[in-house]
Amino acid sequence: MHETSIAMGFLESLSQLLEREKAKRVVKVRVRIGKLSGIVVDSFIFAFDALKGQFKGLEKTELIVEEVPIKYRCKKCGREFSVETPFFPECPRCSSVNLELHSGEELEVIDAEIEV
């Protein structure tokens, strides 16, 4: 379960943020995780919650996850559209498979609220 190692690295980064900012704790943190990122969101949340107690100032941190849908833009007709599954996508307007991925691979921090 690679979500555990990702959560651990994320918590270590938040711990470094606390030290750098000389803050008491991280109140909440918001992240974006794309459906194509390879991360199982429920497993990431579980790992984050299970591990956060090991870090001073992170024990009560609230994790808010925004799941980012898979979105493409058709290079033939320009239509932008979302799909549920990444397997064999095609444009719903012109059936082209000449597509450009616009979102779905994200793994990023949106913001963190800290208490100083």
Produce a short descriptive summary:
This protein is an alpha+beta fold and 116 residues long.
Can you walk through the features of this model?
With 116 residues, the protein is an alpha+beta fold. The chain is 27% helix and 34% strand. It contains 2 helices and 6 strands; from the N terminus they run H-E-H-E-E-E-E-E. The chain has helices at 2-21, 41-51, and strands at residues 25-34, 62-68, 70-74, 80-83, 99-103, 107-115. Strands 2-1-6 form a 3-stranded mixed β-sheet, with helices on one face. It has a 3-stranded antiparallel β-sheet with strand order 4-3-5, with no helix packed on it. Helix 1 (2-21) packs across helix 2 (41-51). It starts with a helix and ends with a strand. The mean pLDDT is 97.
Question: How are the elements arranged and paired?
Answer:
Elements: H1 2-21, E1 25-34, H2 41-51, E2 62-68, E3 70-74, E4 80-83, E5 99-103, E6 107-115
Parallel strand pairs: 1-2
Antiparallel strand pairs: 1-6, 3-4, 3-5
Helix pairs in contact: 1-2
First-residue to last-residue Cα separation = 34 Å
Beta-strand content estimate: 25-35%
Overall geometric form: elongated
| Main beta-sheet strand count, sense and barrel state | 3 strands, mixed
Number of helices: 2
Topology order in helix (H) and strand (E) letters: HEHEEEEE
How big is the Rg? 18 Å
What low-confidence regions span 5 or more consecutive residues with pLDDT below 50? none
Query: Strand arrangement, largest sheet?
Result: 2-1-6
**Class computed from helices, strands and strand pairing:** alpha+beta
Which whole number gives the mean pLDDT?
97
Count the E strands. 6
Helix percent band: 25-40%
